Amino acid sequence: MESKALTNKKIIITGASSGIGKAAAINLAKQGASLILVSRRENLLQQVAQEITSVGGSVQWYAADLSKLEQIDELTSTILSKNETIDILINNAGRSIRRPIEESLERFHDFERCMTINYFAPVRLVRNLLPALRQAENGHIINSSTWGTLLPAAGFGPYNASKIALDNFSNTLRMEMKDKGISVTQIHFPLVHTEMSGATKSFKKLQGMSTDQAANWIAEAIEKKPREIMNSQTRIARFLYFIFPKFVEKKSLSSPFSV
């Protein structure tokens, strides 16, 4: 059912060709949002756009590789030439690398790639789109983060470091924008079963969220505009980590997705 609150709201979603981004796009389209979809994989992105238009949804789509910052400038210039204001920016595109740091000593590019797509790309998008978000007078920036920025997790050094950088940037931005009509939300997802997480076969056997459940968290973020969203297990584990860090580190090392 269409939500009057989202009718004609212009929402940019990056990483929209699959996984959480695709599920969120379809979910928000059903609620009447006017979507602006971005992804590197043009053929898959076009399929998502066609799925949305086939049920009467409003959608623009743009193929861009967000790991190339110059393409972000071209992308945002094109978007702003066709859209005077932007209501919501959802920074969902990302890269995850699971590899112990000791095995990355000859792979510095693991860190560079994660920082580029998970941190520099969202920051570049925010920089370019902030005036349009301010002009909307009720703008909202939603960043896809992870429970791994709140708790210790072995094996995800490049990924978690890049997401922690984004978290801290988001906290600063929230403080600076709180009286200027822009909200900022970080969503600390647990394991979500997507194509990206599925690359690690052992993850397929672990309990996790579906992409539809993750899309519902994004819809909740839009509706309530909280500072952060996480599940109760992560919230409790974060509190315990503050009180009993050694215990939580031991627990996390033996079962990294137990939260």
Account of the protein in words:
The chain is of the alpha/beta class. 47% of the residues lie in helices and 15% in strands. It contains 8 helices and 7 strands; from the N terminus they run E-H-E-H-E-H-E-H-E-H-E-H-E-H-H. It has helices spanning 19-30, 42-53, 69-82, 108-135, 157-177, 211-224, 232-243, 245-254; strands spanning 10-14, 34-39, 58-63, 88-91, 139-146, 182-189, 228-229. Strands 3-2-1-4-5-6-7 form a 7-stranded parallel beta sheet, sandwiched between helices. It is globular, with a radius of gyration of 18 Å. The two termini are 33 Å apart. 40% of the residues are buried.
Question: Secondary structure elements and their pairing?
Answer:
Blueprint: E1 10-14, H1 19-30, E2 34-39, H2 42-53, E3 58-63, H3 69-82, E4 88-91, H4 108-135, E5 139-146, H5 157-177, E6 182-189, H6 211-224, E7 228-229, H7 232-243, H8 245-254
Helix pairs in contact: 1-6, 3-4, 4-5, 7-8
Compose a concise summary of this entry.
The protein is α/β, with parallel strands linked by helices and 259 residues long.
